Amino acid sequence: MANKYTSIGGQALIEGIMMKSPEKTALAVRLPDKSIDITYLNGKSIRERFKILRIPIIRGVAGFIESMVQGYKAMMMSADKSGFTELEEEESGKPKSGEENKSSPLMSIIMVIATVLGVALAVILFMLLPRLAVSGLSLITGAEFTPVVRSSIEQLLKLAIFVAYVWAVSFMKDIKRVFMYHGAEHKTIFCYEKGLPLTVENVRAQRRFHPRCGTSFMILMILISIIFSTIVQMIFPGVYDAAWLWVAVKILLIPIVCGAGFEVLKLCGRYDNTATRIISAPGLWLQRITTREPDNGMIEVAIAALKACEPKVPDVDRSVDIAAPAGAEAGIAESSGEETPEAAVSAEAEAQTDEEKSE
Q1: For site-directed labelling of 325, which of 100, 144, 220, 296 has its Cα 20 to 30 A away?
Q2: Mind listing the pLDDT tens digit for each residue in 59-73?
Q3: What confidence tens digit (pLDDT) does each residue in 3-22 have?
Q4: Is 26 exposed, middle or buried (0-12, 13-18, 19+ CB in 10 A)?
Q5: Alpha-carbon span 162 to 232, nearest angstrom
Q6: CA angle, 285 as apex, 307 and 256 as ends, to 5°?
Q7: Is 224 exposed, middle or buried (CB count within 10 Å of its CB: 0-12, 13-18, 19+)?
Q8: Domain spans of the chain?
């Protein structure tokens, strides 16, 4: 019996989308010539290679780290393939590929510094600032907050900072387009799960808010952090008094919170009931910011990405695809990994394939 939900997940990129199934991971990127490039990322998941990383909680930490690494790699590949990198170099006056090797040591240093500053800013904004704000509020009001109240105030401040940041960057032109691709990704997965032909018209009709989105994972991490922070304060009452010690404890709690968040999100994706809908609700609300209605070209890219990563035996009912003409995917050339030649398929050919399937 087919499942109600697919295990396929995705990530919006720069002018593209990455889709991942248990069998393969595929990137679909809109090239400057308006064709769609399909690239496959090779290699088994780290959780497949090491059994210990399949244990609940631990698998969530491993999956989060792996997703971050793979997501960054895919984002850089999409920026390069879409021509975004060259455009940035032209606008900033940076050296192009012919001069790149000369400046690579300097660029590496700059990237390291930028990464360190980014981590430091995240620690200050999401860990130190909320801690200091709670202390300041306690000083002003003269009230002694309980561990539960302290943790709740801290996490609400984190949530407010996170939402404000996402809302602010959503107005940037390039980020807005990424959020539009994000909407296309969700709509395409919904269409796939419903067993409908993957056409632009069918995909456009779907909702763009998905309960198993990474946005929901971020919200879950913040909410679950309240529970673990409260437990730590109740076991070690004095740990909260030293601001930097508390920040260090919060950093050490990140893997546990990530693992727990992964398991909760997995449950929400497996079941549809009142409890899971309540848990998913905050993430769905935030998706009103992190997803936008896509245009037809973005939907074509999302369809191409999903078709490229679809497993040989679909995990949802795709009987509609049985009637698809043999060789319908022949127009899509495939590449594997970062070093292989690019593969391109025209958006017109992809749209024609979709029309044939819908018939």
Answers
A1: 296
A2: 888 888 888 888 888
A3: 577 889 899 999 999 999 88
A4: buried
A5: 23
A6: 80
A7: buried
A8: 9-92+112-358
